[in-house]
Amino acid sequence: MTDGAQDQARVVSVSRDDAHRFSKPVVDEIVLVEGWGIEGDAHAGTTVQHRSRVARDPSQPNLRQVHLLHAEVFDEVADDGFHVTPGAMGENVTTRGVDLLGLPEGTLLRLGDEAVVRVTGLRNPCQQINDFEPGLLRAVLGRADDGTVERKGGVMSVVVAGGTVRGGDRIDVELPVGAHVPLAPV
Questions:
Q1: How far is the C-alpha of 185 from the C-alpha of 123, rounded, in Å?
Q2: Which helix (H) or strand (E) holds 95?
Q3: Which of 87, 145, 152, 177 could form a disulfide with 24 if both were Cys (CB 3.0 to 4.6 A apart)?
Q4: CA-to-CA dists, residue 10 to 15, 72, 113, angstroms
Q5: 120 CB-near residues (< 8 Å, 6+ apart)
Q6: What is the DSSP letter of 13?
Q7: CB atoms within 10 A of CB 56
Q8: C-alpha 162 chain-centroid distance
């Protein structure tokens, strides 16, 4: 996809953590490993790594290897008095200039020169967000005018091509061929 807005799509920052904590520290770079996730991140693996999902069925495929969150949501919640910074909501890649929530399932995102992730679905914001900052869950999980649930916690993806990703890297978007399936929580 090449248009004026897309040319501005960038990685703002990258984060990883080797332990299961809500927030992830910002680092200079992350290394994505095909079919695995982020080297050194607690959520990497071929099967589910999120503790609640492991408790239900540890053999499920890991559709949540890389969490991407749009920095525009930080601006939006700041209007409600919340102060959220990159990595604070547990994302691995903070973006700007990509409508992550509007992408269809299966969209490929090239992050920098080598790494590519395939979008699998929406992150379902949970109560831990309120533990981080009371009331934030309501700001990132609401209802649209038509009554449908709006989830603004970013998108989940799997790594289809490995590589190093850094803040400032360009993001290129490749929409899937055929009918576009709206994102659902994974």
A1: 6
A2: strand 93-96
A3: 87
A4: 15, 12, 12
A5: 63, 64, 105, 155, 156, 157, 158, 186
A6: E
A7: 9
A8: 16
Which pLDDT does position 128 carry in this prediction?
87
Q: Residue 72, SS3?
A: helix
Going by their DSSP bridges, the two strands 37-38 and 29-33 should be labelled as antiparallel
The phi and psi torsions of 152 (rounded to 5 degrees) equal: -110, 25
| 133 secondary structure, DSSP code | S
d(CA 99, CA 107): 12
Q: List the one residue out of 66, 48, 62 whose CA is nearest residue 110.
A: 66
The CA distance from 104 to 177, in Å, is 10
